[in-house]
C-alpha cells in the first residue's frame, strides 16, 4: 500500500520492543550446563539467572544487580558444583545460593540508602570469592578489592571481609595468580576516567608489597603463569594485548623490581573499550595458551590467537557489537553480544571444531522488517564521522513518489562509548513505520582508536555537535532524508548533545532528550563519584574553566531553541538527576517553546521496566507525528 512515511502500519509494538532480545548479564559454564544472567523488563527490570536446562535459578523478588559506580556489572558468579553467588539489588548484600536452596547472606547489612556499601565485579577463583566494594558511608568514599569468606562469617561481622587494596580511587578486574600468592587488578585515581589513565597493580598477598605495571589505560589482567601477566592497554593508540613479566617478590621495605612489558599480537583494532561496568571481558586465555579475543574497528569480530605459532584467525561468531567473552572451558567459549543480522544472544563456540550453538536468543532477523545497518562515513569539520544507517523498511508499504523519509539521528551516551550497527528491534519500531534511523559515532567515541576518542578532549559540546550536524546534513545532501524532518534523540551524554544541537539550530526539526544533561555546573555539583572529574577532561577544570561551563551549557542559551522538545527522565536517576531535565523544561516553558516532560517513578539512569519502555516509546512516536505532520500508528 502507498502511505506517507511515518504512518506505515507496523506489526512491531512498543511492548514487542520491551520483550525483545533481553540483555545478557554475564554467562558461565557450570558442569555440563550453561548459566546466564538476564534482565526481565516485565518484572521491574530485575536480573535473574537462567540455565540451558530450562530452569530459572533466581526467583522473584531477588535480583542480581550491582550498584558499584552506579553502572554495576559482575553481579553474579557460580562454582562448578552449581552454587550461585550474587549481589542482591535492593540491599547490595552478597548472597550464596545452593542448588534447590534459599539465598544465604555472605556480607553484613548496610543502610538501605545511597550511602551504603555496594558490591560488584564478583569473581570466584581457586575457591576464593573476590569483589569490588564501594563504601559510601565514609568521607571520602572508599573503594576496595576485597575477599569475601564463603563460610558466612562476614554476614554478621563486616571485619571478616579481607581487604587487599583500598583507597578513594577506583578498582576493577581482580585476578589471582595460579600459585595463589599474587592478586592483580586495575586501579585508577578519582581524578581520571579509566580510559584516560589506569594501571595494573599486583599485590603480593604474603609480603604485602605492591608491584605496578607501566600502563596508559589498562584493562583486564589475566595470568599466563605465576610470573607472566596478560592485559590490554592502548599505549599504541589501540587497546592491544600486552605481556608483563614480574620480578621476584621482595618483602617491604625493599623495593620489588618493576615489571617489564611488551606488546603482543598488535592490530589496528581495539581489544578493550570504556570501562563503564565491572563485568566486561574482552578476551580469555584457554588452558593451552591460545587466546580468544574481541577486536573492534567500528564493529566487532572474535579472533583466536595462537602465541606458539604467531597465528590468528577469525571465529564465525554472529556477534558484531556489544561482544563479551564471558567464560571458557576446554576448547569451548561463551560469547554474548548482538549481531548485524541476528538478535542479541549468547553462543557456545568450540574454537577447534568451529561449531557455534545459540544458547539464548541469537535468532536471524528478517531484513524486510529489521533492516541491516549500512556503515557510512561523512566529512566533518574535525575529520571523518562514522555512522550506521537504518533506512525505512516495510514489505507492506511504500511512500508516495518523490517523498523523502523523516529521520532520527541517534546520539549514544557516554560519551566515551560507541555503537556497532547491530540489528535492533528498538530501531525497527521506527524504520517499520517509515522513519529512518542514523546512529552516529561522533568524535569521542570508542572503537576507532585513541586519536578518534580524544577528539572530544576539552571539546564536549563542540565536536560532538559538529559531527551529528555533519552526519545529518550529509544524509540529506545524499538524498536519503527529508532535510525538513530530521529529529535528534539521545540519552544521558547523548541528551546533552541533543540539547546542544538544538541550541545551535538550523538542522534538527525536533529533539528527544532522555535523562540528558542541560547544565554543566549543576552536573559537576550533583553527579556521582565515578564521573565527578569526567568533565575535567571533556570541558576543563573548575573553577578555571567556569566560563566555558556556562557558555557551553544548553540551559544558558535555552532561548535559542525554537523547535519542539521531548524530555524523558527517571525519578531515581543519581547520575543525571531530574533537576537537569526540569531546569530545561522550565526554561522552555518560560519561552513558550512546545515541549513535553515525562518523569518515570522507579527508574534510574536508563529505563528498565516494561511499562516505562512502552510508555516512553509511544510518547516519542506521538511527539514526532505531531512535530513532522504524520499520523502515527502505535
Give a summary of the structure in a few sentences.
By secondary structure, the protein is of the alpha+beta class.
Derived structural class: alpha+beta
* Proportion of residues in β-strands: 25-35%
Strand order of the largest sheet: 28-29-31-30-32-33-34-35
Distance between the termini: 18 Å
Helix content: 10-25%
* Arithmetic mean pLDDT: 94
What's the gyration radius in Å? 24 Å
Query: Which sheet architecture does the biggest sheet show?
Result: 8 strands, mixed
- Overall, the morphology is globular
Low-confidence stretches are none
How many beta strands in the DSSP annotation? 35
Count of discrete alpha- or pi-helical segments spanning 4 or more residues = 10
Task: Describe this entry's structure for a reader.
With 634 residues, this protein is an alpha+beta fold. Helices cover 15% and strands 33% of the residues. The protein contains ten helices and 35 strands. It has an eight-stranded mixed β-sheet with strand order 28-29-31-30-32-33-34-35, with helices on both faces. Strands 4-5-6-7 form a four-stranded antiparallel β-sheet, with no helix packed on it. A four-stranded antiparallel β-sheet has the order 8-9-10-11, with no helix packed on it. Helix 4 (463-477) packs across helix 5 (493-504). The longest helix has 19 residues, at 610-628. The two termini are 18 Å apart.
Amino acid at each position: 500500500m502507498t502511505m506517507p512515511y511515518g504512518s506505515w502500519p507496523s506489526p512491531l509494538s512498543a511492548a514487542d520492543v520491551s520483550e525483545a532480545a533481553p540483555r545478557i548479564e554475564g554467562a558461565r559454564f557450570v558442569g555440563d550446563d550453561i548459566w546466564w544472567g538476564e534482565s526481565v523488563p516485565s518484572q521491574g527490570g530485575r536480573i535473574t539467572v537462567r540455565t540451558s536446562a530450562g530452569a530459572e535459578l533466581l526467583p522473584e523478588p531477588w535480583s542480581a544487580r550491582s550498584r558499584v559506580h552506579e553502572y554495576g556489572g559482575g553481579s553474579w558468579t557460580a562454582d562448578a558444583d552449581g552454587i550461585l553467588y550474587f549481589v542482591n539489588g535492593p540491599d547490595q548484600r552478597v548472597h550464596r545460593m545452593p542448588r534447590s536452596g534459599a539465598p544465604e547472606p555472605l556480607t553484613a547489612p548496610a543502610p538501605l540508602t545511597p550511602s551504603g556499601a555496594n558490591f560488584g565485579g564478583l569473581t570466584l577463583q581457586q575457591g576464593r570469592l573476590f569483589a569490588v566494594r564501594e563504601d559510601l558511608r565514609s568521607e571520602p568514599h572508599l573503594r576496595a578489592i576485597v575477599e569475601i569468606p564463603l563460610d558466612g562469617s562476614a554476614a554478621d561481622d563486616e571485619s571478616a571481609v579481607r581487604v587487599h587494596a583500598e583507597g578513594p580511587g577506583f578498582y576493577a578486574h581482580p585476578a589471582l595468580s595460579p600459585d595463589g600468592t599474587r592478586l592483580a587488578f586495575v586501579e585508577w585515581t578519582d581524578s581520571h576516567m579509566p580510559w584516560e589513565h589506569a594501571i595494573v597493580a599486583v599485590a603480593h598477598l604474603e609480603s604485602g608489597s605492591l608491584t605496578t605495571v607501566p600502563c596508559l589505560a589498562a584493562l583486564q589482567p589475566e595470568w599466563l603463569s605465576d610470573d607472566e601477566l596478560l592485559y590490554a592497554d592502548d599505549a599504541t593508540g589501540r587497546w592491544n594485548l600486552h605481556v608483563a613479566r614480574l620480578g621476584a617478590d621482595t618483602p617491604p621495605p625493599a623495593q620489588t623490581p618493576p615489571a617489564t612489558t611488551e606488546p603482543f599480537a598488535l592490530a589496528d583494532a581495539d581489544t578493550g573499550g570504556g570501562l563503564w561496568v565491572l563485568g566486561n571481558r574482552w578476551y580469555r586465555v584457554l588452558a593451552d595458551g591460545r587466546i580468544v579475543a574481541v577486536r573492534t574497528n567500528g564493529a566487532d569480530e572474535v579472533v583466536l590467537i595462537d602465541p606458539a605459532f604467531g597465528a590468528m584467525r577469525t571465529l564465525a561468531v554472529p556477534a558484531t557489537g556489544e561482544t563479551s567473552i564471558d567464560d571458557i572451558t576446554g576448547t569451548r567459549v561463551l560469547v554474548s553480544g548482538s549481531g548485524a543480522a541476528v538478535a542479541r544472544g549468547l553462543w557456545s563456540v568450540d574454537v577447534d571444531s568451529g561449531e557455534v550453538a545459540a544458547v539464548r536468543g541469537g535468532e536471524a532477523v528478517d531484513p524486510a522488517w529489521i533492516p541491516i545497518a549500512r556503515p557510512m562515513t561523512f566529512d566533518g569539520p574535525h575529520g571523518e564521522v562514522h555512522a550506521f544507517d537504518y533506512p525505512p523498511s516495510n514489505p507492506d508499504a511504500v511512500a508516495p513518489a518523490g517523498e523523502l523519509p523523516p529521520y532520527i539521528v541517534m546520539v549514544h551516551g557516554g560519551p566515551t562509548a560507541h555503537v556497532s550497527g547491530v540489528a535492533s528491534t528498538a530501531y525497527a519500531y521506527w524504520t517499520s513505520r517509515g522513519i529512518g534511523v542514523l546512529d552516529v559515532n561522533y568524535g569521542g567515541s570508542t572503537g576507532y582508536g585513541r586519536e578518534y576518542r580524544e577528539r572530544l578532549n576539552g571539546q564536549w559540546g563542540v565536536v560532538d555537535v559538529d559531527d551529528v550536524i555533519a552526519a545529518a546534513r550529509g544524509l540529506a545532501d545524499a538524498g536519503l532524508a527529508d532535510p525538513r524532518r530530521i529529529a535528534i534523540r539521545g540519552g544521558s551524554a547523548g541528551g546533552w548533545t541533543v540539547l546542544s544541537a538544538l541550541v545551535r539550530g538550523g538542522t534538527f526539526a525536533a529533539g528527544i532528550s532522555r535523562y540528558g544533561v542541560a547544565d554543566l555546573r549543576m552536573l559537576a555539583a550533583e553527579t556521582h563519584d565515578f564521573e565527578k572529574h569526567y568533565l575535567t577532561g571533556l570541558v576543563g577544570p573548575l573553577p578555571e574553566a567556569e566560563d566555558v561551563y556556562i557558555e557551553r551549557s544548553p540551559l544558558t542559551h535555552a532561548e535559542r531553541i525554537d523547535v519542539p522538545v521531548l524530555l524523558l527522565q527517571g525519578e531515581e536517576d543519581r547520575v543525571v538527576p531530574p533537576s537537569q531535565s526540569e531546569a530545561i523544561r522550565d526554561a522552555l516553558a518560560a519561552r513558550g517553546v512546545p515541549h513535553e516532560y515525562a518523569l518515570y517513578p522507579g527508574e534510574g539512569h536508563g529505563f528498565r521496566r516494561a511499562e516505562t519502555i512502552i510508555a516512553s516509546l509511544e510518547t516519542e512516536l506521538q511527539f514526532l507525528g505531531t512535530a513532522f505532520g504524520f499520523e502515527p500508528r502505535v
